[in-house]
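Deliverable D4.2, example record:
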Amino acid sequence: MADTWLIVGLGNPGPDYRHTRHNIGFMVVEELAQRMGVSFRANKSRALVAEGRLSPGGPKLVLAQPQTFMNLSGGPTSALARFYNLPTDRVVAVQDEIDIPFNTLKLKIGGGEGGHNGVRDMAKALATKDFYRVRVGVGRPPGRADAAAHVLKAFSTVERKELPFLIQDAADAVELLVSDGLLAAQQKFHPVNK
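Output generated by the structure prediction step:
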């Protein structure tokens, strides 16, 4: 399992949430599954799971969409990490991030949760914050609008035009992270000289 990575797309199950900002993690792992030509299947971990390789001889990716709702994402994540015998530095959370402007990506390992309950639950279930995060910017709501309501809304008409490119970039960031490491991915998607 030395070349295996668990990529957890964070989101909420069901058609009511499918196109919301909070489900960008689901969208990104769906893009990765499409690239690998694999399909998601129900798993006893309470997640939809797809497995495959991005290229022959490349790292194996276990893509997961927890079906427990965002705030309980940790249980399925820790169950899958145990099943595949993966250390937390082989776990990547793909999440929405309101503190990053729309159409922007940031990658990191460890650190705070930034108020993201899905990431908080993962950290609790894994008993560490030291897992990778691909943070996909969905922007803050305008004015004093409620952030929780904002992430449960669909993307705006203008955002929907850019959304496919953002999803592709986030999938590219995951690929670069697992193949070349965090620094290479950070330098491409948020250069330090900016």
